[in-house]
Amino acid sequence: MATDYPVRPGRHCTFLLHAHLVFVTKYRARVFTDEHLRYLEQVMREVCEQFECELVEFNGADNHVHLLVNFPPKVTLSKLVNSLKGVSSRYLRRDFPEIRRYYWRDARLWAGSYFAGSVAGAPLTVLHHYIEQQNQPA
């Protein structure tokens, strides 16, 4: 298996698991500036580390973010996603008070749904390139 990433050892298994995650803002509101995106990357990297995951790639635009996450089999993706969205929303509200105007009546920044795709068929370099290009004009 040719890969850019080493197989990770676990306690009872070895693994190489990657997920492509996409989160969109509620109602696709155009919320994020470059400063917000840099901040979100830092926060989401820290959340991933708490889950023993690695944030391999991060990028986004004014109304969504893309993440490429390397995760161990013991991590439930839905729990990781809930934590990523919840912590990032809470920290953004705390550290960027001006962004509160985008929090709707139910105090949610992110849409309730998300995209999660397993990354197996395409080389990870292709996905890296795709995510890197997300914030560039067409």
Strand arrangement within the widest β-sheet reads: 4-5-3-6
Name the structural class.
alpha+beta
Distance between the termini: 34 Å
β-strand percent reads 15-25%
Contiguous uncertain segments of 5+ residues: none
Largest sheet report: 4 strands, antiparallel
Which percent bin holds the helix content? 25-40%
Description:
- This protein is of the alpha+beta class and 138 residues long.
- It has a single domain, classed as Alpha-Beta Plaits (2-Layer Sandwich), CATH 3.30.70.
- It has helices spanning 34-50, 77-95, 124-132; strands at 8-9, 14-15, 18-24, 54-61, 64-70, 115-118.
- Strands 4-5-3-6 form a 4-stranded antiparallel sheet, sandwiched between helices.
- The longest helix has 19 residues, at 77-95.
- The model has no long low-confidence stretch (mean pLDDT 87).
- This is Putative transposase.
- GO terms for molecular function: DNA binding; transposase activity.
- Residues 14-134 form the Transposase IS200-like domain.
- InterPro entries: Transposase_17 (IPR002686), Transposase_17_sf (IPR036515).
